[in-house]
Amino acid sequence: MFQDLLNRLLSPAKVTLADEDARLALSALLVRVARSDHNYSEEEKDRIDRINQSRYGLDMGGAILLREEAEAMEAEAPDTVRFTRAIKDAVRYEDRTAVIEALWMVALADGHRDDSEDTLLRLSSSLLGVNDRDSALARQRAEAAL
Asked: How far apart, in whole angstroms, are the C-alpha atoms of residue 130 and residue 120?
């Protein structure tokens, strides 16, 4: 089901994603961070749903559906390096910094920082092309919001 989107993301040619595809790809990255510590908690699922509600103007049912689709896509997506680099090429910088903030909100949703989540956040930030300063500011905004 998601193979077409994954193929477009991973093709050598740069692609521009339709809004729905970008939502799905970015939500899948949120899921990947939440799953990185092997404890995909209800708090993290709820945080992803709330982020998607706020970011995309969805009702709770729509946010849950998007998360469930993102969970399926994340399971099919290749390694984080190729997946994240593909998103970088398809998404504007401003949206990528907002994604880093959202990723931190998911990583911190269960009340503690995990080394595997920290590592994946640093890698994702770098691969998304978000500079260290903007990444640190995104983390600080996420911590303040929680």
From this structure: 14
